[in-house]
Amino acid sequence: MTVGEVGKNLPWVEKYRPSKLEDLVSHDDIVKTINQFMKENQLPHLLFYGPPGTGKTSTILACAKQMYTPQQFNSMVLELNASDDRGIGIVRGQILSFASTRTIFKAGPKLIILDEADAMTNDAQNALRRIIEKYTENVRFCIICNYLGKIIPALQSRCTRFRFAPLHQNQIIPRLKDIAEKEKVTITEDGVKALLTLSGGDMRKVLNTLQSTWLAYKHVNEDNVYTCVGHPLRSDINYILNCLLNENDFAVCFKQIQDLKISKGLALGDILTEIHTIIHRVKFPPDVLITLLIKMADSEARLASGCNERIELAALISAFQLCKEKINVNELAC
């Protein structure tokens, strides 16, 4: 297999991962600060935290590629991911060994990247804090996690923290369109909008969904994107909402929604999420809307704990029926 063929078979997330700090599409303040640290050769221990797909790993890998030549990279950078065992044995073995040995290169300190560090045990984190202190002259640590609360305070205090927020749509769109152009992907405006809606600011999710939809349908539009990830189509949600708001016969409403769920393979949890975003646009009286949202939240909680979907669908229809009755009573009272 040639080098070109290897690149061709790469997932687009890896194929288009930024290799330089200036290629990153967001977090300009963080990039500017880290660039300044590297210029003055004063890089501290780093702690990156925030939701998935916001550029944490890409940022530190771009830093490493900027700090070291390709020949130095393997000997100067140790990257441990969630797939690697990072218990107390690895901290006292592999990490300690890497941190305590010096290299013949005069390329500054080594770099240890601990990705998904919130999966590390407390014992491993406690063992790590002493290594961070003892070998600061020789090595810099970059700890990456999704949940800051799962990193012990002792480690947090030894690092400079940077929060990576979800990406804004205007940051994702240029990179998305650039990749679509390079890969000759046919994408519509409603397809772009669907990708942004489903991603929630996660660049990795945008690119993975784009590639999956393109390979499956060869045309990226709204319906194809939603179908590819098994998400309810907007037309399906509108149909369900229409049944809930306008169908007064409980049995008929239940049958219509249940038939659609079975034929399209929809999950009630996804339906609840979508209805929740649309329901705020319906002009319900405030007390009715609050009651409805509480009952929907209860249904979602029960679904999460393993309750039967048929029972929760009945509860959802009942909640809407009660709210309609409440509105009718209020209108009669007026």
TrEMBL record:
AAA+ ATPase domain segment(s): 42-170
GO molecular function, one term: ATP binding
Keyword terms, alphabetized: ATP-binding, DNA replication, Nucleotide-binding, Nucleus
Cellular component GO terms held in the UniProt record: DNA replication factor C complex; nucleus
Domain of life: Eukaryota
Coiled coil ranges: none
Family: Belongs to the activator 1 small subunits family.
Name of this chain's protein: Activator 1 subunit 5
